[in-house]
Design brief:
- This protein is globular.
- With 374 residues, it is of the alpha/beta class.
- It is built from 16 helices and 11 strands.
- The strands form 4 sheets. Strands 6-5-7-10-11 form a 5-stranded parallel β-sheet, sandwiched between helices. Strands 1-2 form a two-stranded antiparallel sheet.
- The longest helix has 28 residues.
- It folds into 2 domains: 46 residues, no CATH class; 221 residues, SGNH hydrolase (Rossmann fold, 3-Layer(aba) Sandwich).
- A hairpin with a 2-residue loop joins strand 3 and strand 4.
- Helix 5 packs across helix 16, helix 6 runs parallel beside helix 13 and helix 13 packs parallel to helix 14.
- 45% of the residues lie in helices and 11% in strands.
- The chain starts with a helix and ends with a helix.
Amino acid sequence: MPKRYLKIILYLLYLLVISEVSLRIYLVHFASEPIFKKFGSRAMLETRYKQPRLQPHPLLFYINTPNYELGSNKHNSWGFRGEEVSIEKEKDRIRIVCIGGSTTYSDGVKDYKESYPYLVEKELLNQGINAEVINAGTPGYYSIQNLQNYYLKIHELQPDYVIIYHGINDLHTRLVWPPEYYKSDQSGSIVRAPYATRSIFRFLSVIRVSMVFFKFWESESSLNAMVKGTESNVSQLYYEQLRKGTYPEGLFRQVSADSIFKTNKPIYFQRNTEYLIKLMKEQGTQPILSTFVYSSEFPEEAPYLKAPTFQQALAEHNQIMIDLSKTYGLELIDLVKELLIEKDMFTDGIHFTLKGNKLRSKLISEKLINIINK
């Protein structure tokens, strides 16, 4: 081989090594938490977090990892965010469980003591109500997973009250096309992600970061490593076009997002929530429903929250919660009507900051005190 070609090869290898080392140093020491989670290798994730926040589950796709702890965040042995709870209730103590997705888990704050269920318990205790409030929210859960989660775990705790706060995640599952893929079990929306092999290509940051960035590979972070959207799930395509300002393109020139929502009506969201209500009432637990609130002032993080089509679909879900509260004679916490929305209450339009959680928990606590005193 001529020396010239050998020099070129050595120079390219040198650039590769420099790029690899630089990327690793950036990811480990300088990258923000979301970027680290998105582009970090499995070894990097395991080194920093020791264990993932979420872990696979045979029936629910995934659950909060029991006994997880990182910084000021932790899960108990049930996988619920916060302190340990015993299966037996203390005498004369009211047990309240909060159920839902990441907005119940309170993903907007890192400290579990700043989550809304923890703050509700603190407020009730300050007002002389002997109450225990359990955070059973799990990031990404749809209404069907909340139903299963209650049946498989939460009902064993025999709660007196359960606050149901969900709605937005089920909108993602409605953005499925063709319509025959809109199914009650959500199999047309999400599937289990194939286990990523520990190949040299995934080990190399220069390759892994490029492949994840251009969406040829899924991120190795905990949730993306366990579930992924199906080809018929067009929600991410819709959100990406809204973010870029190119909507409608491709499929959406043939069928609009509005048409998809109108075709895929919220029948499963209503049915799953209704089953959840019936199951609770049969076991002597009082369900408390809540409407879902958001801020549309986060065009980069959540461009869909500014889209009238999406807002209308979310309003449908809130109306279902209102109608179900009337049908079954349930208490309703109508956050849409009663919570004054300001941008600094949110991190991204749906997840609350500490300020938002404080305002939200104060309103909910006042409602709970009235309900309990009845």
